[in-house]
Amino acid sequence: MNNVQLIGRLTKDVEVKYTSNSKAVANITIAIDKNLNSDKKKEYKEKGISTANFIRVVIWGKQAENAQKYLSKGSCVGIIGSIQSNTYEKEGEKKYSVNVLASRLEFLNSDRFENPSKREYDTKDEADYEDEIENYDEYNSL
Questions:
Q1: pTM higher than 0.90 for the full model?
Q2: Residue 49: exposed, middle, or buried by beta-carbon count in 10 A (0-12, 13-18, 19+)?
Q3: What is the CATH number of the domain that holds 91?
Q4: Cβ neighbours around 30 below 10 Å, total
Q5: Average pLDDT for 44-55
Q6: What domain range includes position 81?
Q7: How confident is the model at residue 109 (pLDDT cuts 50, 70, 90)?
Q8: Who's near 41: CB < 8 A, 6+ residues apart?
Q9: Rounded Cα–Cα distance for residues 1 and 66 (Å)
Q10: Is the pLDDT score of 121 beyond 60?
Q11: Which of 64, 54, 67 is nearest to 6 (CA)?
Q12: Using an 8 Å Cβ cutoff, are 98 and 83 in contact?
């Protein structure tokens, strides 16, 4: 069984790319707060440890196009999908990446959620993924 369900907020606006056969694909990252009490959260921040997990998600087709059209940084989304692992080579070194391949994307923003523009994330960890995301795109010939 390979199923995953996640709820998180987009760390940046959605960008759609198209494959050589015109299929839309978007690689997004969602931030999911770690389940920490206030003391632990304060301790993590003091030590420079992220209080969120950053999960890379791949969205294909019309869902990717709709995500770009209707979502923006801070939007709350629900993802249902499966774990996908990949390998690629960078500067002669073998690299590994793990992504969620979305089969369903739900837009969860509503009045009952706080204003996403007021939500702050420690995105320090997200930068660590940028090379992998870039190489993942190359790996899939995008």
A1: no
A2: middle
A3: 2.40.50.140
A4: 22
A5: 92
A6: 4-139
A7: confident
A8: 51
A9: 28
A10: no
A11: 54
A12: yes
Question: Over 70: is that where the pLDDT of 125 sits?
Answer: no
How are beta strands 52-60 and 16-18 bridged, if at all? unpaired
On the 0-12 / 13-18 / 19+ scale of CB atoms within 10 A, 57 is buried
CA distances to 1, 81, 103, 105 from 4, rounded to whole Å, are: 10, 5, 10, 12
Q: Which residues contact 92 (CB under 8 A, 6 or more apart)?
A: none
| Mean pLDDT (whole number) for 94-108 | 94
Number of domains, the chain: 1
Which residue is listed with tokens 């056969």? 21
Burial of 117 (0-12, 13-18, 19+ CB in 10 A): exposed
The residues with which 102 forms a beta bridge, in sequence order, are 81
- Of all residues in the chain, what percent carry a pLDDT higher than 70? 77
Contact 71, 77 (CB under 8 A): yes
The burial of 47, by beta-carbon neighbours within 10 Å (0-12 exposed, 13-18 middle, 19 or more buried), is given as: exposed
pLDDT per residue as tens digits for the range 62-83? 999 999 999 999 999 999 999 9
